[in-house]
Structure formats: C-alpha cells, structure tokens
Amino acid sequence: MDFALSEEQNLVRETARDFARRELEPLAAALDASSEGTDEAARKAARASFLANLRKLAELGFMGLAVGEEYGGTAAGAVSFSLAITELARACASTAVSVSVTNMVCEVIQAIGSEEQKRAYIPKLCSGEWYAGSFALTEPGAGSDPASMSTKAADDGDSWVLDGGKIFISSAPYAGVFVVWAVTDPEAPRGKGISCFLVEGGTPGLRVGREERKMGQRGSATCEVSFEACRIPKRALMGRLHGGYHTAVTELAGGRIGIGSLALGLGLEAMERAARHANERIQFDRKISSFESVQWMIADRATELEAARLLLMQAASRKERALPFGKESSMAKLLATEAANRACQDAIQIFGGYGYTEDYVVERLARDARVTTIYEGTSEIQRMIVAREILSQLR
Length: 395
Prior knowledge:
Elements: H1 7-34, H2 40-59, H3 78-91, H4 93-112, H5 115-127, E1 132-136, E2 152-156, E3 159-170, E4 175-183, E5 194-200, E6 206-211, E7 222-233, E8 237-238, H6 244-280, E9 282-283, E10 286-287, H7 292-320, H8 326-351, H9 361-370, H10 379-392
Parallel strand pairs: 1-4
Antiparallel strand pairs: 2-3, 3-7, 4-5, 5-8, 6-7, 9-10
C-alpha cells in the first residue's frame, strides 16, 4: 500500500499551510476575543478580516476542493480536502470550519442538484462571490435524530412555503445560500417525507438570529435561522421530492471527514507546541521533556493522532474512489476528535499554569477542540454507526 501523497496533494497541503501561517495565525487570537468583547469597532474589524480571508481562500481554490472544474472547483479530491482542513485548523479552527461546511454545501449541490442549480450556485461559492454556504439541518428537537425535524415546506402552486426553525447553523449571517431540509409529507413514515431545498441568503421570510456565545470556535458565527412564510420557487427543490433524509445522511458522512481533519489539526498543533515547551521549560534543573511522565503524554498523543490521520486518509481515499465510506468516516471522526481533545488537555498539563491562561495558544485550541466530538454527529452517534455496520455484516 502506497501512503505517499501525489504532487497535487502535497501542493494543496503546502499552500494551505503557508496561507494559514501567513494570514490566519496572526489574526486568530483577535478573532476569538472579538466575539466576547464590547468594542464594536474591534469586532467589526475582526469579522472583516475573517471574511476577507474566506474570499482569499476561495480565490486559491479551497472552497470547492472536490468539485468539478466546470463549476469552478479544483477537482483536487477528498484527500486534498482533508489535508487542507487540517492545516487551516492548526492556525484557526473558526476559518477551517467555515471552509469545511462550504465545501460540504458545494458537494451536496453537485451530487443532487439540477444542472441549472449547479451552475447558479456552485461557482458563486467557489469563486468567493459568496463568502460561505450554510447547511441547515439541526433543529431544537432534531439534533442527533434529524428524522424528527418539524420545519415544513408546503406546496403552494408555483412556490414552496417554508415555516420552522433551525439552530446551530454555521456561517448563517454571511452565507450566500442555505441547504435546508424540511418536511414535505407529514403523513409519511419517519424520514420518508423530508425534502431538500436551496434558499438564498436575504430571501424574505428567512431570518438569521443572534450569534451564539460559544465556548470555542468563536470567530465562526453560529446562529438560529427561522423561516416565517418564506416563499421560494418550485425550482428550489433539490434532488428527489421526499428523498432529502437519505441525502442528509450521505452528506454528513463526507462532513465527518472535514470535522475529523479539523480536529486532527488542533491536536497536532497543541502537541507540537507542548513538545517545544517541554524542551525549553526547566524544573528541578532539567528540561521537563526529560521526565518520563511528559514523554509518555507526548508519545501516546502522537500515536493516537497518527492513527487518526491514517483513518482519515482511508475514508477520504475511499470517498474519492466512490467506495462505501460511511463506517470509515465515522471511525475517523470518532478517533480524531476524541484524540484531539486528549491532546489539547495534555498540552495544557505540560504547559502547567501557563496553559490555563489566554496568553498561550493551547488554551484556545482546547476550547476549539471540545465541540468536535459534538457537531457533525456526536461521538456516541459515530459509535452507533460503526457498531451497526459491523453487526449487520454478521447477520
């Protein structure tokens, strides 16, 4: 088995790494702090820089990494996507998650959209004309159980009328388009009467609520989105009527590669900083890196993160080759996110009291990593998926 990256994959990784260090890293702390401060000018400046970087990333081809060139994508594939998200996350998880979700939106439109929809929406996301896309699935009563959603889309002749609400929607204030799931047949069995729609930002009846005050990934806006008699054209239906639930489940598998890759980047950055600190910090007249307790933390976390990287590469490679990858993406997301949280916590431990302060990056990395075991499917859901796949093969 050849684990070597192609020339194109190496180029994508190096370009992402260089951009992250040059453009994202210097702004990451200010972006994180701006959401909690009262200085409106500082908040606006941080958001402007964030959006400017999203546009620059689009110009570099990072918003459509697995999208065909005919729609403005780079067709670099899922492996390149994983590599890019990892490098961006090492510098700024808030930017990385916006890039990951926008890629996800582009891919679902490419997968099930009509030719008209593909040409109308994907190029605007890939080019940066629109800063981002949003994936509007989660509801207050439908988180891990999307089949329980209550948002409805009523057929009204030449239009659909949306009513309901979504929560925890990434990039909502600056999204050019929302991929929205709604119930189109309330009488259908669970999961069978759900359809998928494209709703442009600014559509009358679509309201974006306040940004959530979050523990981490504060630079990326996460909002409630409501639909109140939101009228959209019939052509806004994407894919097969009542076939949206299958689409959601399928696309979430790809999104798990993105979030697993993001978590991997956070874990790698935390442990690299911790290892460097351990080689510099002197206690008891010795570098703390000479103590076995510190060495074991570094070794265990590095081993877990490398295992997560290999699982992510396997899932991404299978996706590229159009092979089943649902179980593999869940395994990768599960291990990468849990390992990243352990890595960030051990990094704080190695830094000691310094690691608990905002003066050191590992404090932010730990906060940013925490949500990765929750969104795009909790760790518990990933375990259910993996177990179900394994057990079904024994029947």
